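Sequence only, no structure available. Ideas?
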Amino acid sequence: MLKHIAIPRGPFDLAADLHLPDGADEPLRAVVVSTPGSSVKEQIGANYASRLAARGIAALVFDPAHQGQSGGEPRDLEDPYRRGEDISYAIDALSTIPGIDADRIGVLGICAGGGYAVHTARTDHRIKAVGTVVPGNMGTSFRGFQPEGPAAALDAMAAARLEENRTGELARLNWLPDTLDEAAVAGLTDVDTTQAITFYRTDRGRSAHSTNRRLARGDSLLLGYDAYHLADQLMTQPLQVVLAGRRGNTGSYESGMLLWELAPNPVDLMVVEGAGHYEMYDEPEYVDAAVERLAAFYSEYL
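Reply:
I predicted one. Tokens follow.
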């Protein structure tokens, strides 16, 4: 069963889908799903949420503030701190829904959403268990993307923001090339970029609510962000890490192993052999294997 709900978040709402099990005994254990950067609730989050619901676990997936069908201006902002706050607002709403056990709520973070989930769970201990799939630390990723180094990038961003304030025009950047042809012209032909474009920008996984754009001024926030800061001291919840066995240029394997080493209470590590990062988004063989392990984890720790 699928219910569309609105989550109050200050002056606007987050658009969310609650996937509910059919015929399961109440009160239900539940999981809030934190999605990858640029992704909306109908994409990767729905693939995992619907499967968890089929295994008796309620799952709430939402569009981040400023993105998708959620409110918030300016549009297309990827603010890592707000992404974490979104999870806490989702727990606020989920814990008041009849039939949900407010004392058995976990989180599932996928890709960048894995880092956001960890960062939130450190200080929001209403979260009782933390699951991650190909988790990424957006700060580490963005700092690594800067050819002149992150400090020089911040200098350039400061100048660009001054220009934006002068003109009143907010710049936006692509998350990915819009087509495989554009990627080839740019020399981006590696398997991970190709699979990302095939998922996000073709009928395989495209959503009309995902713009493939991010607000340029948000990149300075990402450059200064560390999803795992103080996780070794504060994130005491049980942790599940699911990784793709084929390493690529996303860094999620390395990020997931670092998280595993940092966490005070790691309980299960799964490496899905043969899978690449983006194949963990929607390939049934790999997603089903991950969800079986996640469902067992949540059933034990929620």
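The chain has a mean pLDDT of 97.
Hope that gets you unstuck.
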